[in-house]
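Please check what follows.
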Amino acid sequence: MKNALLLITTAIFAVHVGTKEVLVTANEMKIVFTNVPIGVYGIVAFQDIDKDKKLKSNFIGFPTEPIGFSREAKIKFGPPAFDDAKVIVENNKILSLTILLK
């Protein structure tokens, strides 16, 4: 949905590292992070349709706004395990990820 916010959050073992907000302008977008420290991260992106900067969920806690995780980690009965979503940022390497929002 165009004109919604896309929020991309990075974390290291559930410790929040940073969030980037981008206005959705197309069905496919490229978002670039620069100067990311070397480390192991998990990434979650969600489309904030109502722009309140909070992920909406239903009465059982399942997200109702489009959401996706690095390495296509799946939501089962809660958020994916960190190991399922982890990506490694290495020195002098470009890391390219595709995150599909569902």
Q: What stands out?
A: Strands lie at 5-12, 15-23, 39-48, 67-69, 86-89. The chain has a mean pLDDT of 87. The radius of gyration is 14 Å.
